Amino acid sequence: MFDVVPDVPAPGSAELDVPMPPVSGRVAALAAQMTLEEKLAQLVGYWLDQNGTVAPMQSEMTAGQADGGLLPEITKHGLGHYTRVYGTRPVDPVERAQWLWDEQRRLRRETRLGIPAIVHEECLTGLAAWKAATYPTPLAWGASFDAELVEEMAAQIGESMRALGVHQGLAPVLDVIRDPRWGRVDECIGEDPYLVGVVGTAFVRGLQSRGVIATLKHFVGYSASEAGRNHGPVSMGPREIADVYLPPFEMAVRDGGAGSVMNSYSSIDGLPVAADGALLTDLLRGEWGFEGTVVADYFAVAFLEVMHEVAADRGEAAALALTAGIDVELPTGDAYLEPLAERVRAGLLDERIVDRAVLRVLAQKESLGLLEPDAFEDEAPTSIDLDPAEHRALARRLAAESLVLLTNDGTLPLRQAPARLAVVGPNADRSAALMGCYSFVNHVLAHHPGTPDGIELPTIADALAEAFPQAEVVRAEGCAVEGDDRSGFAAAREAVEGADVAVVVVGDQAGLFGRGTVGEGNDAQSLALPGVQRELVEELVATGTPVVLVVVTGRPYELGWALDADGPRPAAVLQSFFPGEEGGRAVADVVTGAVTPSGRLPVSLPRTAGAQPYRYLQPILGGPSDVTSTDPTPVRPFGFGLSYTTFATTDLEVDAEVPTDGVITVGVTVENTGGVAGATVVQVYGHDVVGSLPRPVAQLLAFARVELEAGERRRVTMRVPAARFAFTGRDMRRGVEPGVVEIWVADHAGASAPKTLEDTTGGAIVSSAVNRRHEVPGTATERATVTLTGEFHELTGADARIAQVEVTR
């Protein structure tokens, strides 16, 4: 019954070809028994707990959902998903696990077909549940340039989820950052699609290695909304979508084997993604071979009616989404239950489209073991530690690796304890300041004042006091993250004036929908530091006491005043992207020199508060030139980061000729020429000298994080697919053109400038308003020239997407 069905015109519709996915005999037989109501029940979720606001328009969208006390009636036809049974309010994990095991047994016992539900949870910074470990935010993953450690982290997260009976995690976010004013930047990995793809794919592998399905989101283009406004329309052509926004998802599907994909809320060139079959079916399944399930971002199906206004009612919205390729409606069955059933009964939707989605869901349940006769016959855990020492140790290591030293006059590290240390600023002594938007602390506990955090969360002030037990540590807030209250300035100034050194901690507060300065629904109109924090820093710097500025944020801010100002400025600036539960100790590790900083910027730091959108992947005319009076040059470029030691990069060797479908071997020697151990990130960049379309002046081709003892040297060899130079040509085919390319190794994206400003116009136009070259620390090797030979090579799934790295002595 569920093999490929021959074309049969649906009543009132054009002819449809609805090929069915390949499934096992067990799944096909099970689906063949189902009534329409039982089929639709498998395509929806149910949200047990409904207090708080953890999704857009949550209260409006769930107003009609039946009360959880009626579960036998609600689930009489079965259920596809349980939505966030651990992650909507603080529940004791052991007690909720016992409830969940009992509930799954009830579904097996009391529903006609006895199919348990998939349980999904958020897991972007760790399992979003009370008492669970909270890791650094994804922007910190990107700053670490350590995909292997991210994979280890995801495996730990998966272990906790699986132990609690959770089957699917709604992560990672593979949106490429385009405009940091967008509030969800802290959920993203970076502004370079290759970095996003490599690190995101590592997360997928780690999570799924523990039997938990990873969900790629938000497919696709969500981060490119106009003016950085959440859910805003995306005005972008198919070439940029194909070359910048799709590659991370393709890597995670083809190389990571991701089991699920979640749609973007946005519309692209006027077409809502939730109704775009060209993306959700033709590309994702037809071209990439994706075999998992596509789940709706929360309420995205209903939003086709109420926000996009492309459907007259819920039933039409459901038909649009299901036909396009969204298999499961989350978080609840707002549209896929009775509204969709009515359309099927009326002959307005071919039931085979329902069957197709049902088969995918059942196949996924089969892969998870939910169709086995002994599913949930084991006992629920009677005790569980969701924040064990090994999780905290990894969280601390990843946080430390992600810290980016932006400037340092030699004040850091503080290897000798100061007699008196001032630790001041709005983020100095607040644990919530260390957490991202999707941490349980900021996502859920903010709605439950008085509830304990459930995990140890030492602040930066706590950690520094712990690191310097002999020092007198004086704390002062100075001001809040937001607002214009300066009443705390005097106390902060007094604390700093009497100290040997001051650590001043500023930045963001993550939250949702207007609660905080960054996070979902917290978009910014300017990239100036929020509130009066800059004023506070400048007043404290004016005391003359050495100031170490620690910036704890979820997005990059304009910090030129702190980095390159002509007048007094901080002695050192350390950027931290929400470092998680051990972030305080990680900052202390770097400040004291216990750890040598090695983080690199995964996003460009803007020179001015209004220079957005911008990313380093720009053609010549995307940067400074004599034809414009504005200068988008970042104050610190993508890939930038300082260290307490120094590194030399020498002996670059690159293949002279490689076919367009081949692999380019890049070799370089890296030596730690300083006096302390440290890690460097070897960054390989490329440039297509003459393309059929304008190409970026610099493009990250590959990277490798290398740990070196003082005086140690290693040979780093990277096998870079020529496909890394691929782009979508004039005929909209994506591939590699023959011709000459340049390859070099650099400390960051701005460390090698091939042209002067005058070269951009050939000297025909000279503007006196343009800022000339900005000097930023960093070096690069000479550029090697490579000739890509042969014919144009159109990419296929067989082409390698990720460079292979080998580090030898």
Overview features:
3 domains; Immunoglobulin-like; Rossmann fold; 18% strand; 26% helix; 809 residues; beta-glucosidase activity; seven-stranded parallel β-sheet; alpha/beta; six-stranded mixed β-sheet; Glyco_hydro_3_N; Cellulose_deg_GH3; 22 helices; TIM Barrel
Tell me the fraction of residues in β-strands, as a range: 15-25%
Order of strands across the biggest sheet?
1-2-3-4-5-6-9
Name of the CATH architecture of the largest domain: Alpha-Beta Barrel
The major sheet is characterized as: 7 strands, parallel
What is the third-level CATH name, the topology of the largest domain?
Answer: TIM Barrel
Q: Return the domain count.
A: 3
The averaged pLDDT comes out at 94
- Structural class estimated from helices and strands: alpha/beta
Account of the protein in words:
- With 809 residues, this protein is α/β, with parallel strands linked by helices.
- The protein has three domains: 335 residues, Glycoside hydrolase, family 3, N-terminal domain (TIM Barrel), CATH 3.20.20; 207 residues, Glycoside hydrolase family 3 C-terminal domain (Rossmann fold, 3-Layer(aba) Sandwich); 162 residues, Sandwich (Immunoglobulin-like), CATH 2.60.40.
- Helices cover 26% and strands 18% of the residues.
- It has 22 helices and 27 strands.
- It has a seven-stranded parallel sheet. Strands 10-15-14-13-11-12 form a six-stranded mixed sheet, with helices on both faces.
- Strand 4, helix 8 and strand 5 form a beta-alpha-beta unit.
- It is globular and about 75 Å long.
- The N and C termini lie far apart (60 Å).
- This is Beta-glucosidase.
